[in-house]
Amino acid sequence: MNSLHGWFCLVLSSIALSHLLTFFPRCPFAGIVFAHYGPVWKQQRKFSHSTLRHFGLGKLSLEPKIIEEFKYVKEEMQKHGEDPFNPFPIVNNAVSNIICSLCFGQRFDYTNSEFKKMLNFTSRALEICLNNQLLLVNICSWLYYLPFGPFKELRQIEKDLTTFLKKIIKDHRESLDAENPQDFIDMYLLHVEEESKNNSNSSFDEDYLFYIIGDLFIAGTDTTTNSLLWCLLYMSLNPDIQEKVHEEIERVIGADRAPSLTDKAQMPYTEATIMEVQRLNAVVPLSIPHMTSEKTGKSRARARKEIRKRVCMGEQLAKMELFLMFVSLMQSFTFALPKDSKKPILTGKYGLTLAPHPFNIIISKR
Ligand code: HEM
Predict the structure, then answer these.
(1) Which of 84, 159, 255, 345 could in theory staple to 338 by disulfide, Cβ–Cβ 3.0 to 4.6 A?
(2) Using CA positions, which residue lies closest to atom 1 of ligand 1?
(3) Beta carbon of 287 within 6 Å of any ligand 1 atom
(4) Atom 30 of ligand 1, residue of closest alpha carbon
(5) Is the predicted pLDDT of residue 25 greater than 50, yes or no?
(6) What CATH code is carried by the domain that includes residue 152?
(7) What is the pLDDT at residue 287?
(8) Residue 344 domain-assigned?
(9) 14 CB near ligand 1 (under 6 Å)
(10) Does 358 reside within a domain?
């Protein structure tokens, strides 16, 4: 049982939170996203946040990585010439590569079929979690183990993603250089070693590392991908707004220089556009379900205070990625819908995250 199971079963249960512990007694409540509020969550979150910051989360030092990743996006999009294409695989791979660089110390090429499979699994799982049949798991927990239909599909996804992430952790353990930690996993493994010498009750171990890596991989990929896809879709549908964004980019950055977060202050129209798209489509519509693990006797005010401490850990990273990727895309291309295409459905695919229905776009170079 692992944290991915946590993701999927907790989402399934978001509608019947109070039944959660009864129906999913083996669910670990580990990691960060679904961990109960308490000392373990605090320790793990603090360590994870400061380690990610050490590698650039929310800092200008991460900018070159995002700009570098955009070069691959541009190259990949240009391969389509004037033909329509679905931007999802490219954007998804690019966004995921940023969190993968921080956590695994590596990016994955857009032709890497195993990684593509993992990305498709992640979005598929977040989509089918709210499938009507799967929601029946709230009434009969054993349905999750049925050998057919969406139940089987979800379990298979959980298994494959687990194998993928555990292999990455194993490779890191084998090549760990204590003098030269390269990424989040290395830092965590070193912290596990240190804690094992000094603290026999430590919550830091390799199992917990796996939970956290699962959280970061899932939370750091789909959310930002969908936000960017919605931006591209709305720009294609609203050429007048797209033109104003182009004008602002032209005026503040020009055609050749790469964008920087320091440009943001002079680009209110572009920022307002991104914010308006986010307002129109909340990409995490249900937020994350939380509950107390036992009767606490705490006042409502106290419980509310604790809930308020649960804020997105990747917010600064997401804002940075969104701004830099969106501006880079707009600086390089004009986006439009293919002439003969139907008007896209704007309600989105309702899952844990709100993804746009698949759509094709055409690009023209600027
Ligand atoms: C546009 C992009 C994103 C959106 C809309 C978003 C939204 C959210 C929301 C609604 C929550 C739940 C907060 C709560 O528990 O009440 C959350 C939690 C979280 N997010 Fe994000 N997120 C985004 C990007 C990211 C990225 C890039 C990361 C990668 C580091 C990330 C990591 C996390 C983590 C670890 C939590 C759990 C925090 C905790 O419980 O302490 N998110 N996010």
Answers:
(1) 84
(2) 224
(3) yes
(4) 314
(5) no
(6) 1.10.630.10
(7) 58
(8) no
(9) no
(10) no
